[in-house]
Amino acid sequence: MKRLDDKNLRFILFYLLVIVGFTLSYAAIFVELMKIIEGRRVSFTTAIYWVIQTMTTVGYGDIELTTDFLRAFSIIVQLTGILMLFGMFIPFVIVPMVEERLKNLIEDFPRVAPEELKDHIIICGYNPMVASLITELQSEKHPFIVVDPIRESIEYLVSHKIPCIWGDPTKREVLIDARIVHARKLLANMDDETNASIVLLASSFPNIEIIAIVEDVKNSKYLAYAGADRVISPKQIYGTQMGMRATGPLVNEVLESVEFFKNLRIVELPIFPGSMLIGKSLREAEVRFRTGVHVVGIWNRGELTLGPSADEIIQENSVLLCVGTMEQLSRLRALTTGGFKK
């Protein structure tokens, strides 16, 4: 890396010398041309001033040229400046410096999970739902690691000190680097096609439970065929919960829940008529404070919002996508059905 820095430094010094050389040469020529062709005397300082503003294409217009010969000379000076900036400085100085910076950032990305990591969850793909799940895993002190191929996601995870590795989870070596041999569960949380590849690959490793999040319910069976132990479809759960809503509240029962790790589950809970949460924002409802449950998404009018803001309003037809323990989810169930008083 040091050799590359020295090379850049040498080129910058060379570039500056060339710029100074052109500037002084053009200034001297300008002084003589103004005296011989236009019969005007200008100082060398004024000539340098004219050359610099012409090469940088600023052109304030305070020095007027009256002959075609000098105008043609000014075009040559302008083209020289454009060539020096766009033909040399940007591609040979700016671009290598940016590429080197990006390379350093990428080289700093974690690529291998710590050796002490075991009995953990491998989360393939980062999004708002996973962000909320991570919060729960951290509060429950469950070991996990996020695998993501997107540089921006890894930058965010690294900056927030969230365990992660950078790589494509459809590649065997990346899952091995995530210590899949020692993992307890794997969550495939990317698009359906990528999830199928992840599931198929992960199923070749023994003693690991594979959970897949599916976007299109029609693809559920393919993920199951690929080797997923559980396939979660937010849309399908939403339909089930709305059906439950039509049959009436079952306060003491939390159905369609999926256990992620030990007693940590994800479930969708519909809001029943008479619930004290109706009309309140998530901030006003204080769901986290009252129940310990983390709301990772909310269905409103058939549309799922992952990672909803605190200002999201809970409506009578809303369905909350939540993560928590069975005890916490039961407390929230009481709130959603109106069976819990403040």
From TrEMBL:
It is a multi-pass membrane protein. This is Potassium channel protein. It comes from Candidatus Syntropharchaeum butanivorans. Keywords: Ion channel, Ion transport, Membrane, Transmembrane, Transmembrane helix, Transport. GO terms for cellular component: plasma membrane. The keyword Membrane applies. PROSITE patterns: RCK_C, RCK_N. The chain crosses the membrane at residues 12-30, 42-60, 72-95. GO terms for biological process: potassium ion transport. Residues 118-232 form the RCK N-terminal domain. It comes from the Archaea. Gene3D superfamilies: 1.10.287.70, NAD(P)-binding Rossmann-like Domain (3.40.50.720), Regulator of K+ conductance, C-terminal domain (3.30.70.1450). InterPro entries: K_chnl_dom, NAD(P)-bd_dom_sf, RCK_C, RCK_C_sf, RCK_N, Trk_Ktr_HKT_K-transport. The keyword Cytoplasm does not apply. Residues 253-338 form the RCK C-terminal domain. Its main location: membrane. It holds the Pfam family TrkA_C. It is found in: Cell membrane. GO terms for molecular function: monoatomic cation transmembrane transporter activity.
